[in-house]
Amino acid sequence: MIRRKIQEAIERSLKKYPVVGILGPRQVGKTTLAKMIKEGITGKRVIYLDLELPSDLNKLQEPELYLSQFLDTLVIIDEIQRMSSLFPLIRALVDKKRIEGQFLILGSASPEFIRHASESLAGRIIYYELTPFTLHEIGYEHIHKLWLRGGYPLSYLSENEDDSFAWRESFIKTYLEMDIPQLGIHIPAVHLRRFWTMLAHSHGQLWNSSQIANSMGVSAPTVRNYLDILVDTFIVRQLQPYYLNIKKRLRKSPKVYIRDSGLLHALLGIRSFENLQGYPSAGNSWEGFIIEQILGIMPEGWQPFFYRTGAGAEIDLFLINRKNEPVAIEVKYSASPRVSRGLLNALRDLSCKKVFIVYPGEESYPLGNNIYSLPVKDIIRIL
For the segment 298-321, what is each residue's pLDDT rounded down to a tens digit? Predict the structure, then answer.
């Protein structure tokens, strides 16, 4: 079984905070992670409630009466967004007897979940986002498999490429037809699938609501709503532009990425690594994949952006660390990366002491003043 990198952090937080929340999309492994944490707890009783099971829902017909029995117990509640009325009760129980490790709550990404938890449990909860498998977790030697299949456990661990592709197709169908309606969002699945596919074809590009709205025959606010749904459910990432008070015409639209490369490839119909290598926009797929790997290990307090001007200056990923120091990162799908004119122009605008060009090679070497090539296997050096 692949150990998730955030498990130790969650276990430490359960010794400090009364409530710990794990957020993430469906099928990402939250339940498996919670059960692994449960198995490692000694000296304390643990009960587990799955709100997708009618038997567990039935126990909570009188939730205050039921949960009041377990003030000295770790209560794990899975799919808590199905019963949002629990949030004020959890707050009251925590305030009644505040001790560490009272509740571990799991939620499929849901705006409702986040809103209720934020309002009811402020100062009492710490959140963790569980992403699909990352390179840091599965090892560099499996990079091609992870890039092609993505990191959803049942996709990555499938016996063969056909099974993996079929699982991802089924996930997309289930997400559109069942998961979205369960969140109280009522949009025809065919519309959202078409929108999602259009995003896949513009993966890594600037968001252009008018262009997509015209293609779909709907309004710009409608496609903005579609995008918000996919962002709020951790399917899509918006990378915001970095602004400076300089006399440059800066791009102000975000860049949009399908967060999981496996879902991206399913939407594009890419079934094998050979197909992927021959895909005209393989570089865009690689860029999004590497950005997710970097952000997956980014320390708390760091901020990610991209930088682009109307004159062509560009940086794929621009990180600001806790000391307000910038780190510039370019991503290249090439065995012999070169410093682009756009990067050099951007570096003239910005004060970067660290500049890396991440590529699928084996060696790190200087490419210019403070500019270094960096193999993917060594991306931890960025931090």
Answer: 988 999 999 998 888 899 999 999
